[in-house]
């Protein structure tokens, strides 16, 4: 059986590319936010702990779709005022930027917990050894904590990335031309909703499989030098 | 922040919240029922029993809920067989479509939780049940499933919270649950920040309450070492 795409194949491919771009940008923002959140939550400074805790609790308790809508529609008046102040009329957040911010925010909130767990999994003695050697706090973080943390955090981050990839579909609600949006457009023309949403589903499945393979390779690389537990 | 507007529309948002709760409650309970045979089959030792649930779980975990929802709500209408069937009045209704999709979606996740829980049961306990002369079915019913329920409960409560958040997608198929209601109100008041903020507070409140309920349930189900003879 061949599937007639009514000439929408290239559009769907472009949509897939957009989805990947969106997912990767949101991943970068989310990793940065997650790292900051985890450092805030594990810091000895109370207000910072509170800030990190509030961020992860608040963002994780509210649906991703609500964040997407809130950031896209909620910033219009804010951007308008900013535009007036900067003398840039028509300044607004486009769907891509809103999607990256919303999904990055959500990824970051979950990543905060993953990174926090990973930081706590590093034996205290390693940090103390760094201190004893006279390393500064920043150095201990960048040379001792972070490199070791990645290995522990990687499986959790992989799961989050899988979730993020599927959440990119939500950004079609605010009109970003990713897979779902292109499928919707194709449906209005061809009147074949099942065909096109099924094709979209299989593109997402394909992306998930690619991401899974990538994660597996990364995990293997991160675990080099470690004996297998049950060898 | 325009508080008067929020207070004015609170009753409507609460109305949306009840629909959200309804959707989530049906989906997680029906999903659990569907997940039990799926999870058991998924952890089977023979590959031909495992294959079908594996495919099901792979599809539903690997694709976005939004795609699945559109496949059911818009997609099924493509087939004349569906449109002329007696189920069509239900499959045309956004409420039943959402319930069906959410159930199928969450069943895949719960089946994976159940599989993990079944595999986490110490082998000795299952062997002990078999050594006492229990048949495989009996051991499953009286030993493995109750044990797996306790092991899997925290993960199940996570899944319920995830479904609460996923229910926001129902707004894309015209259902007026919490998010849908918020969008309708915004279309009339042009105050996105206030109304989305209020809806967000509702979600936070519901998830807080759910977490508390599951904590109680966990305490209630806990078997202490000193319990029994």
What order do the helices and strands come in, and which of them pair?
The complex is a heterodimer of chains A (231) and B (229).
Chain A: H1 9-42, H2 46-60, H3 64-85, H4 95-120, H5 124-132, H6 137-167, H7 179-190, H8 193-222
Chain B: H1 3-42, H2 47-62, H3 65-73, H4 80-83, H5 88-91, H6 94-120, H7 123-131, H8 136-166, H9 178-189, H10 192-221
Structural class from helices and strands of chain A? mainly alpha
Mean pLDDT of chain B: 91
CATH topology description of the domain at 18-176 in chain A: MetI-like fold
CATH architecture of chain B: Orthogonal Bundle
Q: What is the strand content of chain A?
A: under 5%
- Overall 3D form of chain B: flat
- What coarse outline of chain A follows from CA principal-axis ratios? flat
- Uncertain stretches of chain B: none
Let me know the number of strands of chain B. Answer: 0
Question: Could you state the CATH homologous superfamily of the domain at 18-176 in chain A?
Answer: MetI-like
Main beta-sheet strand count, sense and barrel state of chain A: none
């Amino acid at each position: 059986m061949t599937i007639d795409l009514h000439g929408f194949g290239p559009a769907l491919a472009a949509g897939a590319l957009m989805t990947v771009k969106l997912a990767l940008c949101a991943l970068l923002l989310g990793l940065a936010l997650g790292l900051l959140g985890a450092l805030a939550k594990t810091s000895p400074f109370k207000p910072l702990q509170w800030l990190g805790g509030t961020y992860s609790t608040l963002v994780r308790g509210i649906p991703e779709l609500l964040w997407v809508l809130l950031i896209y529609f909620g910033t219009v008046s804010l951007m308008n005022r900013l535009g007036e102040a900067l003398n840039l009329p028509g300044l607004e957040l486009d769907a891509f930027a809103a999607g990256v911010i919303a999904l990055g925010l959500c990824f970051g909130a979950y990543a905060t917990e993953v990174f926090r767990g990973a930081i706590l999994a590093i034996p205290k003695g390693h940090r103390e050894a760094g201190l004893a050697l006279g390393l500064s706090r920043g150095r201990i973080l960048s040379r001792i904590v972070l490199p070791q943390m990645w290995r522990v955090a990687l499986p959790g981050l992989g799961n989050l990335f899988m979730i993020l990839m599927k959440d990119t579909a939500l950004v079609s609600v605010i009109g970003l031309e990713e897979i779902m949006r292109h499928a919707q457009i194709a449906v209005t023309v061809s009147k074949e909703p099942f065909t096109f949403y099924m094709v979209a589903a299989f593109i997402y499945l394909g992306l998930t499989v690619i991401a899974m393979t990538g994660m597996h390779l990364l995990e293997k690389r991160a675990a080099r030098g470690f004996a297998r537990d049950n060898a | 922040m325009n508080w008067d507007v929020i207070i004015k529309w609170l009753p409507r948002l609460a109305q949306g919240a009840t629909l959200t709760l309804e959707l989530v409650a049906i989906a997680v309970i029906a999903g659990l029922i569907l997940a039990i045979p799926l999870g058991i089959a998924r952890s089977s030792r023979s590959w031909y029993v495992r294959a079908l649930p594996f495919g099901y779980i792979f599809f539903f975990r690997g694709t976005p809920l939004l795609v699945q929802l559109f496949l059911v709500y818009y997609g099924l209408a493509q087939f004349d067989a569906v449109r002329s069937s007696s189920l069509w009045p239900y499959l045309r209704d956004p409420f039943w479509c959402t319930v069906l999709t959410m159930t199928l979606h969450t069943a895949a996740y719960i089946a994976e939780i159940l599989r993990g829980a079944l595999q986490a049961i110490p082998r000795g306990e299952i062997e002990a049940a078999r050594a006492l002369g229990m048949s495989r079915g009996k051991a499953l019913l009286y030993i493995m499933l109750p044990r797996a329920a306790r092991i899997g409960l925290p993960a199940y409560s996570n899944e319920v919270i995830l479904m609460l958040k996923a229910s926001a997608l129902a707004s894309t198929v015209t259902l007026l649950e919490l998010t849908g209601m918020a969008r309708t109100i915004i279309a009339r008041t042009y105050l996105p920040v206030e109304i989305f903020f209020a809806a967000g507070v509702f979600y936070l409140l519901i998830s807080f309450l759910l977490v508390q309920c599951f904590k109680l349930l966990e305490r209630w189900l806990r078997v202490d070492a000193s319990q029994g003879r």
